[in-house]
Amino acid sequence: MANEQHTAGSLATALSAELDGPSEIICTGVSSLEDAKSGDITFMINAKFAREWETTKATIGIAPKEIQIPGHDATSRALLRVDNPNLAMAEVLAMFGTNTDRPEEGVHESVVIASSATIGKNVRIGPFVAIAENATIGDGVTMYSNTRVGKGCSIGSHSVLRSGVVIEYDCVIGEGCILNANVTIGTDGFGFCPTLDMSGLMKIIHIGNVILGDHIEIGSNSCVDRGKFAATMIGKGTKIDNLVQIGHNVKIGENCVIASGTGIGGSAQIGNWVQIGAHVGIAPHCRVGDSAKIGAKTGLMHDIPAGEEWLGLPGGKVKDVLRQWSSTRKLPGIISEIGKRNEQ
């Protein structure tokens, strides 16, 4: 669809939007309100951004149905009124997106495939890929250069493994997953114990695996450790940012969002629809209930009930932590006042 010509009218139809302006305006690109030029489409999520419509050079705008758009001239520019502008913009970006470096359909001549591996139809497997014994690659899978799939692994149909991805032995990747550059799935869990004579640390071998559900996306340089006995599991639809560490035997539910720099300790359990901010640390064996929210840089050492919002180090309920922070900021003034009174 990236090569098709889109107009305000065709975009309105595709987005099921209410069109306010000329339908024949041609859309030539996608941009922000600040950087847009004539022909671009942009979007406004609320009234604050709507105030910039009058000065932006964009020709087509996506906006919520319920807000006023100051300075709109329906004779020269078009507004697409939608229920959810973020979702509509995501659909537009998909229309204009390109992927010029995707491997061509087929298997590159440099690929090494074990004779016992199974390769599906319509795959795209780029240079210097290695696929080990008894691995299964589903239909329509794309594997970029220098990826590796270990023994007994299964890659679901239409999943994408970008350059440098490593899937260790016996791991399972669902359908429609996206693993970005240098993701590693199924590395050894982090487990050691002192030897009896205290001469060193003995490595605890992890014999479990990793199971990813369907339509999971994992960002670059993230790592999911294999389980000690059973599986480390991530539920369908969950999205994980760059540089995230998932420890052994962690269980993450469906449709969670985990931001960059987060580390989740072994055997922690995360419910469905949980939102975790950047640089959060979750201690081993913690349980996080469905739809909970954890703010950036939180150090979580206790279970979180479903639906609660936590923040801080150590983590606590948002309203309690904000009250503590507010009190702390007032301390210098209080101490100064006490000093003045003591001097009198």
* Strand proportion: 25-35%
CATH class of the largest domain: Mainly Beta
In CATH, the homologous superfamily of the largest domain goes by the name Hexapeptide repeat proteins
**Please, what is the average pLDDT?**
95
Broad structural category: alpha/beta
**What is the global morphology?**
flat
CATH fold title of the largest domain: UDP N-Acetylglucosamine Acyltransferase, domain 1
Count up the domains. 2
Number of helices: 4
CATH architecture of the largest domain: 3 Solenoid
Number of strands: 40
Largest sheet: 12 strands, mixed
Specify Rg, calculated over alpha carbons: 26 Å
Helical percent range?
10-25%
How far the N terminus sits from the C terminus, by CA atoms, comes to 78 Å
Low-confidence stretches are: none
Question: What key phrases describe this protein's structure?
Answer:
single chain; 344 residues; alpha/beta; Udp-n-acetylmuramoylalanyl-d-glutamate--2,6- Diaminopimelate Ligase, Chain: A, domain 1; UDP N-Acetylglucosamine Acyltransferase, domain 1; 2 domains; ten-stranded parallel β-sheet; 15% helix
Question: What does this entry look like structurally?
Answer:
The protein is an alpha/beta fold and 344 residues long. It has two domains: 6-96, Udp-n-acetylmuramoylalanyl-d-glutamate--2,6- Diaminopimelate Ligase, Chain: A, domain 1 (3-Layer(aba) Sandwich); 106-318, 3 Solenoid (UDP N-Acetylglucosamine Acyltransferase, domain 1). 15% of the residues lie in helices and 29% in strands. The chain contains four helices and 40 strands. A twelve-stranded mixed beta sheet has the order 8-11-14-17-20-25-28-31-34-37-39-40, with helices on one face. Strand 5 (40-43), helix 2 and strand 6 (60-64) form a beta-alpha-beta unit. The longest helix is centred in the C-terminal third of the chain and has 26 residues, at 318-343. The mean pLDDT is 95.
